[in-house]
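Cross-posted from the bioinformatics board.
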Amino acid sequence: MSDKGTSREIKVLDGNRAAAYGAMLCRPDVIAAYPITPQSEVVETLFSFKAQGLLDSELIEPESEHSSMGILRGASIAGGRTFTATAAQGLLFMFENCIQVATQRLPIVMVNVCREVAGPHIVVSGHSDTMMTKGMGWIQLHARSCQEILDLIVMAYRLAEDPEIRIPVAVCYDGWFLSHLWEPVEIPTREEVARFLPPFETSPRVDPARPMVFGPWISSKVATEYRYKQSAAISRAKAKFDEIEREFQENFGRGYGGQIEEYRTDDADIVLIAMGSSASTAKVTVDKKRDEGLKVGLLRIRMFTPFPKERLATALKQKKAIGVMDKTVYFGWECGNIFLDVKSVLYSAGIKMPVLNFICGLCDSDITTEIIGRAIDAIDQAAQGKPYSEVVWPDLE
Amino acid sequence: MKEIRIHGRGGQGGVMIVRMLAAALVLEGKWASGFPSFGMERRGAPILAFARFDDKPIWEKTRVYNPDCLVVIDAGFISSPTLFDGIRPESTLVINALEPVKKQLHKNIRLIGSVDATKIGLEEVGIAVTNTAMLGAFARTTGWVQLNSLLSVLGDYFAGDKLEQNRKCVERGFKEAESVRF
């Protein structure tokens, strides 16, 4: 990026540096983060930006992720725009404070670089961290490219800070497969991001001249009302995100479809559902299968929380069979998290068809075009009325 | 699309090769990506790195399984049983070797470019760094990236004396690479 940030520039960046550029362009007042693989370069790059005079934020490296989120809680109540980044054990360590800030409706933006939670002793890619925290009251967005990581962070602040939403947002991307992937990224100018994302305004805020209590003990009824309003605000984020993305596209010339991204689904008989970097690879396989005459489409979940129920039901209602790729297993259900959620959507919408689940990409396993091809073939078989296994672990076949 | 797999050891700069190569190719208006093998990297351990480039956007976010080119930074890997896994027909090998490799090491390898990158690193930088000389040899052997593009992006990765030393490494790698066709 040119130091002044006055003209758009294409740079070859990895996902972590793209995230750091995204955060810098959003001008956070306070950044508190603790380094953890595979996220460390996000924090290192932000400290480097600060040293170069490119970033005018208060940068804090506390002793833990739990404290990082605690610091952001205070900074956000004081009216600051805030940012942090973490992964896996770090996310779980800050989990308690994550729930606090969500209940207090603090518009914090966080990057979670998805990593398998140990044990066994592994430091590898996977979605188990983000899936374990899906109920913490945050909005969860998932990227498929380094460009989208940067773009989502800019959109995440608009969504989080919207007066009708006021919910923290986690921008998630695959550890290593995106965090360490170098590819061209267009970096918007500071001016155009400033136009798209005005300064953060909030009220009431911590003010020594007007002491007040934040997060006090409250009655059961008021607390229940908190929960109800929090749930409603998270749901409102679905339509709001689509709206913000349309505006982003008008300003920056890139769009991804809002809550979900559909590829060749319109006339498709069968659809593969994926999330994260594997949904990018799957595009290649879908094109190949189309060339072979198979009417297959791809649906990528970008907004995982709140779950895009309405848009999924609309997109899937005329299909003959679908398959869901999950990068986690939901213990006790013998299937993946996204699979369960999709099935729930179909039931509510009165849609009945074969739904297959492919549990792959766990613990650093690569979701190759070959695995995706086998998944599409299995969905096709099910669509033709042939017997099928509902849950498949392609890496173990 | 062309796919490249780098075989090296932790500390030899294999990961930097794919970063600089992707940057040089993007400078030429191509689409490119690069990424390393994962895990708890440490010096001396075998590492893989991967690169892709094309005239259109690259959607694959996977490792490279069917390379069009192998870049071997440590000649010791020649005896590795997995070195040539998945290699496409009509492939190229670029190798850091004391003496030019004249033998067709695999039936799918049709072009071998050899360079003594370790010697170049020792003479120009003073330590056995090989990656910038290997980049020069890669450009010369494959013709897939221009020497000038590589030289243009070096400034994003090196400064001061190191920049000048590595500029010489790229140029010497390009000049001293010897090719054999099969």
